[in-house]
């Protein structure tokens, strides 16, 4: 009986791939969720992987570096991904088109066809940061009709919006 109850009420797991351009805030988000504090980061060469447990769900989060020379390697992490967290620096207006191109390249890959998409519209605390509706428009999200997506405003350093994003992932994925 104990095994049955733990199967029903125990931890579920979800494989999450967290991508985005360099300096968007991916690693800061990962460690804010994992440790509950802001950490000093350096550009990620390769990847970080951590398990974050929230609301009885174990999120296995893969944070992969976003520098342009590393991006071709992203596809090696696609297999088995159930949720994509795409992090956007909302204060970086100069590279929003580049972010759109990369996002659509990811979601158009057949390995990612079943993944739900959470956009962290990050760095909302900065002056002139693009708001979620502007991010939605500039990333061309309204053209994505064949899967669930959501834009969550966030601030990685304070943690604002991060758990709301995880809540959306748990609510919209069949665990």
From TrEMBL:
One of its GO terms (cellular component) is cytoplasm. GTP binds at residues 20-27, 66, 122-125. SMART domains: ARF (SM00177), RAB (SM00175), SAR (SM00178). GO terms for molecular function: GTP binding; GTPase activity; metal ion binding. Mg(2+) binds at residues 27, 44. Keywords: GTP-binding, Lipoprotein, Magnesium, Metal-binding, Myristate, Nucleotide-binding, Protein transport, Transport. InterPro entries: Arf6 (IPR041838), P-loop_NTPase (IPR027417), Small_GTP-bd (IPR005225), Small_GTPase_ARF (IPR024156), Small_GTPase_ARF/SAR (IPR006689). GO terms for biological process: establishment of localization in cell; protein transport; system development; vesicle-mediated transport. Belongs to the small GTPase superfamily. Arf family. This is ADP-ribosylation factor 6. It comes from Tabanus bromius (Band-eyed brown horse fly).
